[in-house]
Amino acid sequence: MAKYIFKRLGTSLLTLLIILTVVFVLVRQMPIEGYFDNFDKLDQAVIDARLNQLGLKDPILVQLKDFFVGLLHGDLGNSARYSVGVPITAIIANKAPLSITLGVISMAISLILGIPLGAAMAKSKSGFWDKFGTVFIVFISAVPSAVYYIYIQSFGSSLLGFPMLFNRDDWRTWILPIFSMSLGNIAYYAMWLRRYMVDEMNKDYVRLARAKGVKGSEITMRHVFRNSFVPMIQYIPTSLLYTVSGSIYIESLYSVPGMGGLLVDVITRQDNPMVQALVMIYSSIGIIGMILGDLLMVVIDPRISLARKESSR
Amino acid sequence: MSNIILSVEGLNVKFSLRGKVLHAIRDVSLDLYEGETLAIVGESGSGKSVLTKTFMGLLDTNGWIESGRILYQGKDLAQYQTEKEWLTIRGREIAMVLQDPMTSLNPLKTVGAQIEEALRLHRGLRGREAKAKVAELLTDVGIGDPERRMRQYPHEFSGGMRQRVIIAIALACNPKILICDEPTTALDVTIQAQIIRLIYDLVHKYRITAIYITHDLGVVANVADRVAVMYAGDIVEIGTCREVFYEPCHPYTWALLSSLPQLGVKGEELFTIKGTPPNLFHQVVGDAFAPRNPQALEADYIERPPFFEVSPTHKARTWLLDERAPRITPPKALERLKKVGKP
Ligand SMILES: Nc1ncnc2c1ncn2[C@@H]1O[C@H](COP(=O)(O)OP(=O)(O)OP(=O)(O)O)[C@@H](O)[C@H]1O
Ligand SMILES: [Mg+2]
After folding, report:
1. Which of A86, A287, B310, B334 shows its CA 20 to 30 Å from the CA of A187?
2. Do residues B164 and B262 share a domain?
3. Which has the closest alpha carbon to B6: B225, B209, B238?
4. Residue B216 predicted with pLDDT over 70
5. Of all atoms in ligand 1, which is nearest to the CA of residue B17?
6. Tens of pLDDT, residues A4-39
């Protein structure tokens, strides 16, 4: 088992290094204006001096080495235009907590609502909950999220009288953004859980459990639900990481000063060091989520850890 | 003969499938005697599984009992509707060993936990007591080192070992009747013999009445006291092993026996039954086997034959046993069965 985990971690680390390198190289291709907040007014000598100082005139391999060394010391460089000269880590540390708080709350709500909905759908097979859930899921996946986000905002403010914009100190303003963020995940969890549960319900071991006299409700809880949660577990870390890293659209819709809007901001403002740092963070999140998902699976599914060993007789 | 433990009277089972109705069990009557092992043989689709599933309320949701009675301990199981009623039967009175051991265990629970679940439900055992009983059962079914094995997961067991675990689960329920639905079909031949032997031993050790479903006539004589031959949802012949093998009366039984590999002659093609079983979506008239029987009588196409009694223990549904019928004798090849001995 330990061997499997190390192997898995090794390959993921390698993937991560490759991605970071690719992003790094791509960012080098961007116009150098992105390293200055007042490029037009500078003369060539000043520009060259600054590029030299930033190490951008060095051979690419040296730059790459410097970058990774910086990374190991927790240094992502400084912002060039967005917030001139401020370390990027400081900017993120300032913005991230709000996104993470919103994300964790939304994640909790999604699990608390999505999982019972999925289970009820699987149990009621073409009964009320199944129909209700299916309509909900189809709606959420068919209608572009931007459309219902806007409806939620306008209905929420006109009918329920909630303020349009987010304000950290007014709890009522948290409701609409969190609600909007959660809808997609609720539908997503309900859909997958329903599907996995229906799969499990038709398996032979459920038949055997029935034949040995286990109550239907107990079969659902002890056998079916538990087993269908295993494939779900794999996706939850990824989904959690994406949720806490902030929703670009919702954060800009409600003017939430979080991480989500940051990437768009720095791209429009052409802040090269920050674009590089944020793209790297977002692409790492996908990989880290996958690793965590796999590791969780290993922990809870006895078949995986031992899959390689020949089964004993 | 001993007491009747379960009695089926005029049972009809139907399924609805895409708006059409399939008549899977057609007016079957059957008495099961306490302590006996009854084998049910017949081609795939003849209704062996469906018949026994009705005893436990395990029909698929698109199936129902149209009419008939299933009498067990003074109650008519055919009337049972609710899960609550069936929970008084499933496991504790009648238990089942299913065909596919590879998929019949929950992959995420230890083998011990799955046996314990039955012990908790039917014997009220928990904790250390239950563990001790699990170890005892595992030893009973021939699994060594039970203390370690009970903490393992199904994937750590081979197919034959998993079937042993499933048998242990059935025994844990402490049933009066054990239904084994083709328990060895999914296993390889050497393991098959071991499992058959194991079931035979345990059924006798615990004095359990058993129903052994198989389409392999070869194993029947090794395990069963009596044999019921099913064809197209009906029992066409029933008797002791000896009677059915050495004095078969129904042309379908003849055909089934003729196709035994033991009767094959080197260099000759093995006998196979021509044609296909009737489509159970349509009403079957007369003797269901007639269209595949080259020597079928006129009467076979008109009216369903009644059960003719050959001996107090031997009955067959064929017009050949009617006094007006012409004398048609079983194929010569079947003579050899007696010489081969046990099929
Ligand atoms: N859920 C169902 N819906 C429709 N038809 C069914 C269903 N279950 C069984 N049948 C039909 O009932 C008949 C009897 O099936 P059954 O499974 O009892 O056969 P069997 O004798 O056990 O065959 P096998 O040796 O293949 O297990 C078959 O024609 C089958 O197609
Ligand atoms: Mg069957």
Report:
1. A287
2. no
3. B209
4. yes
5. 4
6. 778 878 888 888 888 888 888 888 888 887 787 777
Of the bound ligands, which one is closest to the alpha carbon of residue B180? 2
Shortest-distance Cα residue to atom 19 of ligand 1: B45
Domain boundary among the residues B190, B224, B258 is at: B224
Total domains present in chain B: 2
DSSP B206: T
Q: Is A207 on the interface with B (CB under 8 A)?
A: yes
Residue nearest to atom 9 of ligand 1 (CA): B50
**Residue B50 C-alpha to ligand 1 middle, in angstroms?**
6
| The residue count for chain A | 313
Low-confidence winner among A33-42, A274-283, B8-17, B283-292 (lowest mean pLDDT): A33-42
Of all residues in chain B, the one with the smallest CA distance to A224 is B106
Range(s) of the domain holding residue B180: 4-224
Element (DSSP H or E) covering residue B64:
strand B63-72
Q: Which of B1, B4, B65 is nearest to B30 (CA)?
A: B4
Taking the CA of residue B99 as reference, the ligand 1 atom at the shortest distance is: 27
Q: Is A230 on the interface with B (CB under 8 A)?
A: yes
Q: Is B322 contained in some domain?
A: yes
**Ligand 2 geometric centre to CA of B99 (Å):** 8
Total number of domains in chain A: 1
Collect all residues of chain B within an 8 Å Cβ-Cβ radius of residue A123. none
| Residue A10 counted as domain residue | no
Distance, CA of A113 to CA of A108 (rounded, Å):
9
Nearest CA of chain B to the CA of A130: how many Å? 18
Q: Pick from B224, B257, B291: which residue ends a domain? A: B224
pLDDT single digits (tens) A131-140:
999 999 999 8
- Mark whether B193 and B328 lie in a shared domain: no
Q: Which atom of ligand 1 is nearest to the CA of B45?
A: 19
Q: A168-187: buried (b, 16+ CB within 10 Å) or exposed (e) per residue?
A: eeeeebbebbbbbbbbbbbb
- Please tell me the predicted confidence (pLDDT) of residue A123: 87
The tens digit of pLDDT for each residue in B149-182 reads: 999 999 999 989 999 999 999 999 999 999 999 9
The answer to whether residues B90 and B190 belong to one domain is yes
Q: Which domain holds residue A122?
A: 88-269
Asked whether residue B141 falls in the same domain as residue B275, the answer is: no
CA trace torsion A152, A156, A159, A165 (10° rounding) = -130
Q: Tens digit of pLDDT for each residue in A202-247?
A: 899 999 999 999 998 899 988 999 899 888 888 888 888 888 777 7
Which of A126, A199, A212, A308 is the mutation pick for testing B, counting most B CBs within 10 A?
A212
Query: Confidence class of residue A65 from pLDDT cuts 50, 70 and 90?
Result: confident
Could you tell me if B171 and B283 lie in one domain?
no
What pLDDT, on the 0 to 100 scale, is given for residue A305?
58
More confident site: A159 or B4: B4
CATH label of the domain that carries residue A148: 1.10.3720.10
Positive or negative, the CA dihedral B114, B115, B119, B122 is positive
CB contact under 8 A, B158 and A311: yes
> For position B152, which CATH number holds?
3.40.50.300
Residue A308 in this model has a pLDDT that exceeds 50 = no
Are B293 and B251 in contact by the 8 Å Cβ rule? The answer is yes
pTM: 0.82
Pair type for strands B37-41 and B209-214: parallel
Q: Atom 3 in ligand 1: which residue has the minimum CA distance?
A: B15
Beta carbons of B118 and A312 less than 8 Å apart: no
ipTM confidence: 0.87
